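Record type: monomer structure entry
Structure origin: computed from sequence
Chain ID: A
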Amino acid sequence: MKKSSVPNANGIPSSKPVPVYSCWASLDTQNLKDMQSTVGTVLEDTVTFVIRYLQGYEITNKLQISYKNKLYNIINIVPGEYDKEFTNIIAKAVT
């Protein structure tokens, strides 16, 4: 999702997330040990989305992820190191 200025019913521009790309992903949540070690850090309450490495769209941390009607801000993008099969996207739910 990318924030875009879209006019509302009154014609006033408002910022609204607009889909720019769609792909399959696996969602990994933090286990108890990770939750305890990330308390008070930027990684607190984060989840990891795992996608195939080569996508048809460049994913940046300026985008948001929409998953089950919930928005997530992208914190970090970790490309696969060995065979580059998968990319991990660390994200935090928008509150």
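Annotation 1: The chain has a mean pLDDT of 85.
Annotation 2: The first helix runs from residue 32 to 37.
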